[in-house]
C-alpha cells in the first residue's frame, strides 16, 4: 500500500485550515502547527466579513473591477479573476460547513457594504464577529477530521535539502523539534508588529515570511503595507470595522466637520489608503489629536445588534458611541506583499507553498479591498491544498517561476544607532515606513536597520526568534519601499505632496 504523503501546515487561520482540509481530502496526512492555540489567529479577530458576488444583481466582473481600482491597478488580473470567480463557491462551502452567517427574518443572507465596493456583497456572522465564527467552524472540523495539531510551536526555519523543502524546524515548549514532510505550507499571516500601532494579534511577527526568505524564496510588493484608518484611540488598538462606515458612520474633525470628501469624492467609503492618509493629515493639522468616528445617527439599538463586539469594546472603554463620536486613529493592518506564489500556492522553492497574508499572488495590488482577505484565504487555501495533493501524486513538486524584484542600493549602517529593541524597531518603522513616508526617512530607517542587522541577535526562546524575524522583515520592507520611487496605493511618499502639507514625520508622529 502506498504511504500517504506528509504535509505540514504552519498557521491555522482560514488559509491554513482550508489548505489543510483540502490536502487531507486529497489523501495527504496533515500536521497543523500554530504558535499559539489553534484558534489564536488573525482570522479570529476579523470583523467585517467576506466579500463575494453571490447576489443576483452582482457579478464576479464587478467585484474584480472594484478590487483592481482599490489596488491602484497594480493587481495581477489573473489572480483577481480567480479570487472573484471562485469566491462564491468557497463561501457556499463555508455555509455548508456550518459557518452561521447572519440572515434576515426570511432566512436570506444579510449583506453589508464596505468602502470601495460598488455593491453590498459582504456576508457577515455575529454582526461583527465573522472571523471568529469561521475560525471556530474550521478549527472544529480540523479536530473532527483527526488532523494532527501541534500548538505552542514557533517556526524556526524551513528545512531545505537538495534545493527543495522537506520539513520544518520548530521550537516547542523550549525544545527544538524537526517535522519532516513532503510539502510545507506557510500560512503564518502578516507582520503587523513591525509597527508601534497595529490591529494584528501578538503572533503576527513575520515568522513565515522570514523563514521563507532564509529558505531562498522570492518575495515582492513588501512596500505595500495597509494601515486601517479607524482604530480606537483609547485603551489599546481595537479595530472599528469598515462596515461601520458602510452603514453610514462618518469621520469628523475637532470642529465636527467631515473632511475625507476634501480628498476623494467617495468620502469615508474611499479606498482604505486614501481614508488613512486623510485621517493622518487632519490629525496633524489639529495637533495630533485623534479624529472622531460619528455613528450616533445609527442609534444604540442598531449599533448593539449589528456590531455587538465593537459595541462591547467601545463601552468597556467608558465611551457611548450612540451618544457621541469616538476617537479613532490609523494602525498597521495588512501586508499586501509577501512570498511570491503562483495561483496554486507554489513558491519558487519546490515543495514549499504559501497562502493567505504570508503569500503574494498579486491579488491585492497596492491596496487590499475591504473583506477580500478572508476570501483570499478560502480561495487560495483551497487551491493550494488541491495542488499539494496533485503534486504528491505526480511526485514532481513544481515551483513557481518569477522575475526577481530590483534590489535597493546599499546603504551605510548608522554609527549612532542605539542598542536593538523591539520597541525601538517598532517606533522607527512607524515613523519612517508608516502610512506616509519620505525618501529621507526611508534612508534613515535603512541605515538604522543595517546597524542593528550587523549585530546578530540571539535566537533561543520564542521572543528572540520573533525579534530576529521582525528585524529581517523590516529590512525587506524598507528596501522595497526605497526601490519604489513614486507613490502608489498604500506606499505614499509625502515628498510628492503639495507645499504646505505637513511632513510625513509630523504626520505619523501625530498618529
Q: What would you call the structural class?
A: alpha/beta
Choose one word for the global shape: globular
Q: Count the beta strands.
A: 18
Distance between the termini: 61 Å
CATH superfamily of the largest domain: FAD/NAD(P)-binding domain
Strand composition percent? 15-25%
Please give a structural write-up.
- With 511 residues, the chain is α/β, with parallel strands linked by helices.
- The chain has three domains: 6-155 and 336-394, FAD/NAD(P)-binding domain (3-Layer(bba) Sandwich), CATH 3.50.50; 229-331, Succinate dehydrogenase/fumarate reductase flavoprotein, catalytic domain (Flavocytochrome C3, Chain A, domain 1, Alpha-Beta Complex); 422-510, Methane Monooxygenase Hydroxylase, Chain G, domain 1 (Up-down Bundle), CATH 1.20.58.100.
- It has helices spanning 14-25, 42-45, 60-70, 77-97, 130-144, 207-214, 242-246, 272-285, 300-306, 308-316, 373-394, 422-432, 439-453, 462-483, 504-510, and strands at residues 6-10, 29-33, 50-51, 111-112, 122-123, 148-150, 153-161, 164-172, 175-180, 183-186, 219-220, 225-232, 250-252, 291-294, 326-335, 338-340, 352-354, 359-360.
- It has a five-stranded parallel β-sheet, sandwiched between helices. Strands 12-15-14-13 form a four-stranded antiparallel β-sheet, with helices on one face. Strands 3-5-4 form a three-stranded antiparallel β-sheet.
- The longest helix has 22 residues, at 373-394.
- The chain is globular.
- The termini are far apart.
- The relative contact order is 0.17.
- Mean pLDDT is 94; it is low at 499-505 and 507-511.
